[in-house]
């Protein structure tokens, strides 16, 4: 019986219709596959198209697409065409080169446009992604019972060919967390045989990004990673397991359990701003990386003094495993180092100067408050009080215009040059002095800042 799906986005529906008609006119067949058909089965509207074309060689498909679109060929391991500026990936069925081993970086494949669609689906990762729908005939192919697994909340590998790409383990992490799925024991056992060693960091990064940006319940994904034995590739996470916390403040359990609760809270409060959510998510994930090295139990109390600064090293190591982007390090590490500061400043009702100095260190106080809020909330069954410290700090920082940026110095080198100060150590010291005075609230305009600089000059000369 034909299966009817409706794409509500007219641009997406029109693009699919045009592509399908052109492929069919050349004797090929277009299948909607992967996440697109999975979302349609779930009754959700996809934001992009994942298509597989059978019956047309790669060269012929490239020529056909190039007649109307700017085409980019990507994927050393898989044959995928992207259409510039359009949300669509188009692939051709492929198989491993004869005699090639599996689970190796830079896996080489050869296209096989005549491969039956069910065989092509067997090469996909999980049953929920191994369905295909023909928008012309409305035939839905589901050889591995993906619909049944979705309905049952179950994540299961499609076939033994799952091992062709070891990073499908990380994909399982994000899918389990995104759709709140329980992973079957057979898939966990298979994942335990795989390794991420030698895999490019770019691919690791993409899977972790999806995990943090799309998960509804991140704790399920990390629990799956633990079950697979893959925490051995992330020793900073593994070290959190069994690291005790004082039950008076952390009745939920050890640092690992606490981190899982914090991530679930973060996921429930994502803003939809991708960069902010990514940096905050990483901050929440890494915020207690310093506890294993600092935790002490004297028999009466469990403490972890200095764990904020101690988290700098393991956070940097963890992030370097995933990416070489220095701006990510620069944004995340200060959140780890300062995640207890909102509460500390609130407790003493800190001055404007202290808040400006915190903004100078972290740049984005609004992000810091989100990390601290998740940290404060992730302690069930301890009741969440709304984290008034975060509201207080954000209100104060907003009034000072430092909630989303660090304070910028008003007095610059060019201003001192106009006052006759020559470049050199004296100018550097005077600039530092002016900025410190600005942070302390001694002046708030350039005119006042220049007057301050002149007073210091008269004292020096």
Number of domain modules: 3
- Using DSSP, what is the number of strands? 13
Beta percentage is 5-15%
Q: How many helices does DSSP assign? A: 23
Mean pLDDT, rounded to whole units? 94
Q: Determine the CATH topology of the largest domain.
A: Beta Polymerase, domain 2
CATH homology superfamily of the largest domain: Beta Polymerase, domain 2
As residue ranges, the low-confidence spans are 100-106
Tell the overall outline: globular
State the name of the first-level CATH class of the largest domain: Alpha Beta
Q: State Rg.
A: 27 Å
Distance between the termini: 93 Å
Largest sheet features: 7 strands, mixed
What percent of the residues sit in helical stretches (DSSP H or I)? Answer: 40-55%
